[in-house]
Amino acid sequence: MASSLIPRIASMLTAAALLVAVACQKQNPDPNAADLATLTALPLVAPAPANNPGSPEKIALGRALYWDPVLSGGRDVSCASCHHPANGYADAIDLSIGANGLGLGTARHFRAPNDIPFVKRNSPTVLNSAFNGLNPDGSCNPTTAAMFWDVRAQSLETQSLMPITTMEEMRGHQFTEATALDSVVARLRKIPAYATLFGAAFSDATPITAANIGKAIACFERTLIATDSRFDQYMRGNQAALSTQEVAGLNAFAASGCAKCHSGPMLSDYKTHVLGVADNGKNPTSDAGVNGTYAFRTPSLRNVALTAPYMHDGTLANLQAVLNFYDPGRGAAPSLNPHVSTAQRDPLFPARVTDAQAIIAFLGTLTATTYDRTVPATVPSGLAVGGDIH
C-alpha cells in the first residue's frame, strides 16, 4: 500500500511546486491555484466494481467480443469499428458511421443503398474510459461513472451493451431494440468457441448472458489505459518532462478558466454544461443534449491530440478551432447554435483564452504512447476482425 502512494505524493509535490512558482512570478496569490491543484497524474491501475473484478479469462473474452462483429445485427460492425487503436480508440470522423458502414477512420462511408443515419454524436475515445468519474483525490466509483455525452449510462458494464441495441450504431434493421440483446445471446450460444470462453470466464450455470457480455467487454476496456503521458511524468516528479512553453501552457490553461471544467486527473469534471456548439448538418434535427437543455458532458482531454475532430458533434476540426470557439469569452464569443443564446451559456464558460499556442503545446503533453494496440488475428465467430473496416 505504501508503494502505491508514492506516485500520488510525487504528483502532489509537483503540483505544489508549480503553484509556488506561479505565485512567486506574480507576487500575488494565484486565483487559479485551486484549479491547478486538481490536475494530477493518473493512477496506474483502473478501478473495477466489486461485482466484476477483472481476470485473464474475462479480459480474453472481452477482447474477442470487442473485435467481433457478431454482436451487430448485420454482422458488419464491432466496437472496434468506431473505437480503433489506429485512431486513438476513436474514429477520426465528426459523426460515427455504424451499421451498414464500410472502411476505417476518415475512409469510412455508408454502403449503397443506405437508409441508416449517422450516429448523431462524435465517438469519444475508449482509452482511459475506465477512469471516467475519477475524483481529484484519485477515488472513483466505477458503478456510477458517467458515460456518453449525455450521461445516459453509468459504468462500463452498462455502456458496453447500449450500442448493440441502438439502430444506427450496431443493431441496424435486423433486430428490434427489444430483441437485440436476446438475439445476440442466441447467436453466441451457437458458437462453440464462445461457449468455451464464457465458461472459463464465468461460473454461472448459463454463462452466455447479456449481463456477462457487458461485464467481459468492461473488463477488457479497463486494460485500455494510457498513463505514461509526459504530463503524468511531470506530475510524478520529472521536471524535465515538460518544456518551458508547455508549463506556460498549463498555467494559461488554468488562467483561461479551462481547468474549472477540465479538472481532476482525467481533465474532466464529468458534469454537463451548455456551450452553444453548432449543430452538425448531417443530423436531421438539432441535438438538444441532456433533457433538451443543450447541455453535454465535459469530455476528458486525455490523449486529446489523437482524437480530432472535437465537441459532441465533431464540428470543430482541430484544437485551434476549439480555442477560437472559447475566445473571446462567455459574453462576447458568439453562440454557434441558434437554440442557445450567449446568456444561456454555462457560467463556467471561459472568460478569455490566453496564449493559445502554449495551451495547444500543453494539450500535446497529455498524449500517452504505451497502450494496447493489439489487433487479434481472428475472432471466434470467424467473421472479419473488427467488422467491415477494410
What report would you give on this structure?
The protein has 390 residues and is mainly α. The protein has 2 domains: 183 residues, Orthogonal Bundle (Cytochrome Bc1 Complex, Chain D, domain 2); 166 residues, Cytochrome c-like domain (Cytochrome Bc1 Complex, Chain D, domain 2), CATH 1.10.760.10. It has 14 helices and 6 strands. The chain has a two-stranded antiparallel ribbon with strand order 1-2. The chain has a two-stranded antiparallel ribbon with strand order 3-4. Strands 5-6 form a two-stranded antiparallel sheet. β3 and β4 form a beta hairpin. The N terminus is likely disordered.
Summarize the structure.
This protein has helices spanning 2-26, 33-37, 56-67, 79-82, 156-159, 162-165, 167-171, 180-189, 192-201, 210-221, 230-235, 244-255, 319-326, 356-364, and strands at residues 101-102, 109-110, 146-147, 153-154, 272-274, 295-297.
List the helices and strands and how they pair.
Layout: H1 2-26, H2 33-37, H3 56-67, H4 79-82, E1 101-102, E2 109-110, E3 146-147, E4 153-154, H5 156-159, H6 162-165, H7 167-171, H8 180-189, H9 192-201, H10 210-221, H11 230-235, H12 244-255, E5 272-274, E6 295-297, H13 319-326, H14 356-364
Keywords:
disordered N terminus; Cytochrome Bc1 Complex, Chain D, domain 2; mainly alpha; 390 residues; globular; 2 domains; two-stranded antiparallel ribbon; 14 helices; 32% helix
CATH superfamily of the largest domain: Cytochrome c-like domain
Work out the number of β strands: 6
Write down the Rg: 21 Å
Percent in helix: 25-40%
Could you give the distance between the termini? 46 Å
Strand order of the largest sheet: 1-2
CATH architecture title of the largest domain: Orthogonal Bundle
Sheet bearing the most strands, described?
Answer: 2 strands, antiparallel
Flag low-confidence runs: 1-7, 12-17, 19-28
CATH topology of the largest domain: Cytochrome Bc1 Complex, Chain D, domain 2
Integer average pLDDT: 92
